[in-house]
Specification:
The chain is an alpha/beta fold. The chain is about 45% helix and about 20% strand. It starts with a helix and ends in a 6-residue tail after the last helix. Belongs to the UPF0065 (bug) family.
C-alpha cells in the first residue's frame, strides 16, 4: 500500500493526540520531583503573603518537596501574575491570586499582559476576606446612613483612603457609591497601613479596610466600625451591621485568596494540587490561623471555583464601567 505524506501526517497527528493524555499522566505520576515555586504578586507582610506561607508550609510536608514562596510585587499584582502566566506549565509554578489579579485588573490596565481567565487554571478558592467601614474615633458620623445623607446633600465632600485602583478598599468604595448614587473623593496611598494612619490622624474621613488590618485600631478604640462589607454580620464583630443592613441595599463585597496554575498544567497535577490544598484549608489549626488573618476559609475547587471567578469578573466589570473608570 502506498502512503503519501498527507496520510503520514494525519497518522502522526492522531498518534500525538492519543499519547498526550498518557504523557500527562506519566508526568503527574512523577510529580513533584523537585521544589515548587509559589508566587505571591504582592509584598511580604500582607494577607496574600501570610496565606501563601501557611499553605506552602503544609503543602511541602504533604508533597515531600519544598514549596518556596516567591514574592514578586508591583503594579497591583500585575508583574508577578504576568510571570506565572508565562511560566512553564509543568506543575512547578503556581500562584496566590486575588480579586485584584484575577477579576478586576483587566478593567484598569489596557496592556495587562495576561488574561485572568484564559491564561490560568483555578485550583482552590482558599478563603474570603471582608472589609470594615471605619471612621476616626472622634468622627461626627455614627452610622452609614449619616454618611449617605451627608453625601446626598454635599456630593464629593468626604474622602476615603485606598491602596490604589482595583484594591478591596477601592472596590468597596466604588460599590457603595454605585448603590447609593453618591460621590466620594478617593485618596490613594502606597499601602493600606498609611491610609489607616491618616484616618486616625483625621486627614481622611473613612476607609474600607480589611478586618485584619483594621483590628489593632479597632481594639485600641482609635476608630469606629460603622459596617462590614460581607452579606451577613461577622462573628468576631457581632455589633457591626452589614452595609446592606445599614441601608445600602444589595451591598456585598468580599475580596478573596485563591490558588492558580498556568494554563496547560496537566490536569492530574491540578487535581492533586486542588485536593491537597482543600485538605489543608479544612485543617482546624489552619482555619484558626486563616481567621486570625481575616480570611474566612472556603476551599472550593474545580468547576465551582471557575464559576465563581467568572461571576466576579462580570460583577466588578459592571461596577467599574458604571463608575466611568477607563483602563489606562
Amino acid at each position: 500500500m502506498k502512503i503519501n505524506r498527507r496520510t503520514l501526517g494525519a497518522f502522526a497527528l492522531l498518534a500525538t493526540t492519543a499519547l498526550a493524555p498518557l504523557a500527562a499522566w506519566a508526568q503527574a505520576a512523577d510529580w513533584p520531583s523537585k521544589p515548587i515555586r509559589y508566587v505571591v504578586p504582592f509584598s511580604t507582610g500582607g494577607v496574600s503573603d501570610g496565606v501563601a506561607r501557611l499553605i506552602a508550609l503544609h503543602l511541602g510536608e504533604r508533597l515531600g518537596q519544598p514549596v518556596v514562596v516567591d514574592n514578586k510585587p508591583g503594579v497591583s499584582g500585575i508583574l508577578g501574575t504576568q510571570a506565572v502566566a508565562r511560566a512553564q506549565p509543568d506543575g512547578y509554578t503556581f500562584m496566590g491570586g486575588t480579586i485584584t489579579t484575577h477579576a478586576v485588573n483587566p478593567f484598569f490596565s489596557k496592556n495587562l499582559g495576561y488574561d485572568p481567565v484564559k491564561d490560568f487554571v483555578p485550583v482552590n478558592l482558599v478563603g474570603m476576606v471582608s472589609n470594615v467601614l471605619v471612621v476616626p474615633a472622634g468622627s461626627r458620623f455614627d452610622s452609614v446612613q449619616q454618611i449617605t445623607a451627608e453625601l446626598k446633600a454635599k456630593p464629593d465632600s468626604l474622602t476615603y483612603g485606598t491602596a490604589g485602583a482595583g484594591t478591596s478598599q477601592h472596590l468597596s468604595g466604588q460599590l457603595y457609591q454605585s448603590l447609593t448614587g453618591t460621590q466620594l473623593r478617593q485618596i490613594i496611598y502606597k499601602g493600606g497601613s498609611q491610609a489607616m494612619v491618616d484616618l486616625v490622624g483625621g486627614q481622611i474621613d473613612m476607609v474600607f479596610e480589611t478586618v485584619a488590618a483594621a483590628r489593632p485600631m479597632i481594639d485600641a478604640k482609635r476608630v469606629k466600625v460603622l459596617g462590614v462589607t460581607s452579606k451577613a454580620r461577622l462573628a468576631d464583630l457581632p455589633g457591626a451591621p452589614s452595609l446592606a443592613e445599614a441601608g445600602v441595599t444589595g451591598f456585598e463585597m468580599q475580596s478573596w485568596q485563591g490558588v492558580f496554575a498556568p494554563a496547560g498544567t496537566p490536569q492530574p497535577i491540578v487535581d492533586r494540587l486542588a485536593r491537597e490544598v482543600a485538605t489543608i484549608v479544612a485543617m482546624p489549626d489552619v482555619q484558626a490561623r486563616l481567621r486570625n488573618m481575616g480570611v474566612e476559609p472556603d476551599g472550593r475547587v474545580s468547576a465551582p471555583f471557575i464559576e465563581f471567578q467568572r461571576a466576579e469578573v462580570a460583577k466588578w466589570g459592571k461596577v467599574i464601567r458604571d463608575a466611568g473608570i477607563q483602563a489606562e
